[in-house]
Design goal:
The chain is an all-alpha fold. It has 1 helix and no strands. Keywords: Membrane, Transmembrane, Transmembrane helix.
């Protein structure tokens, strides 16, 4: 369980950063 959380938390943070970057890129594209 601890290993899953240790892997899931950084992954979620990374996903938020990527999602924000993609959203900004799409916004700039239009």
């Amino acid at each position: 369980m601890e290993i899953i959380f240790a892997f899931l938390i950084p992954l979620a943070a990374l996903w938020v950063v990527i999602y924000t970057a993609v959203r900004a890129a799409i916004r700039h594209s239009r």
